[in-house]
Amino acid sequence: MNAIVQDSQVSYYKQLYTILRRNIAHGVWKPGDRLPSEAELIETYGVSRITVRQAFDLLVHEGLVYRRRGSGTFVTIPTIQHGLNRITSFTEDMQRRGLHPETEVLFAGLRPATPEMAETLNILPGAELAVFERLRLADHEPMSLEISHLVHQLCPGVLAGDYGRTPLYEALQDNYGIRLTRAHQSIRAIAADKALAGRLRVPHGTPLFSIERVSYQQLGTPVEFLQLYHRGDRYVLYNELRN
């Protein structure tokens, strides 16, 4: 039923909430779509503004929609749960979730290691690092920015690869016999500055998860220093703890 029943014992706002919720569940409005405005719902269902707002409040409380000031009310885009207990490929992770992964290579080139990065990677300051800046997308939507710094002497020629198509970790294993077996990382919550916001195509100040990770190959040699910036509205980070 997609109409308000005037003589029902169920309040108008709960009836409207049920109608809107059903339409979301049935895909009438898909994730990211804007719901009809308050004025449109008032005209369509013959209810008051307070009734519409109460129905929206219930949907917001359930996490089904979110409000954007000055723009309207939108269907929530499901978040991606990202485990912290294993080193995963973005491509494999998205495919496993039924999403279409894409990668845009924003930069690929050599840079000298700073003293701090050299100490982290156990190399000499100024040693060559193969640096890749890659924008990660799922179903055409930017999800995260990855800035990978690889010890170039361990993988000479790695810059020749097409890492918009080929997973970087797969290339390291296939071409250089490097398999990343362990890593340590730190996580912070930050607000996107103008540079990060521009790369991720989100508003300035958008909450992000900032992850810094050092990954080691099977012999215990550090191979990569990785900077990850995940959109806070699209990722949930989780870990399993045991006693």
Describe this structure in words.
Pfam families: GntR (PF00392), UTRA (PF07702). It comes from Candidatus Promineifilum breve. Keywords: DNA-binding, Lyase, Transcription, Transcription regulation. This is Phophonate C-P lyase system transcriptional regulator PhnF, GntR family. One of its GO terms (biological process) is negative regulation of DNA-templated transcription. With 243 residues, the protein is of the alpha+beta class. The chain folds into two domains: 12-75, Winged helix-like DNA-binding domain superfamily/Winged helix DNA-binding domain (Arc Repressor Mutant, subunit A), CATH 1.10.10; 80-238, Chorismate lyase-like (Chorismate lyase). The protein is 27% helix and 34% strand. A six-stranded antiparallel β-sheet has the order 4-5-6-9-8-7. Strands 1-2 form a two-stranded antiparallel sheet. A two-stranded parallel sheet has the order 3-10. A hairpin with a 4-residue loop joins strand 8 and strand 9. Helix 1 (12-25) packs across helix 3 (49-61). The longest helix is centred in the first third of the chain and has 14 residues, at 12-25. The termini are far apart. The model has no long low-confidence stretch (mean pLDDT 88).
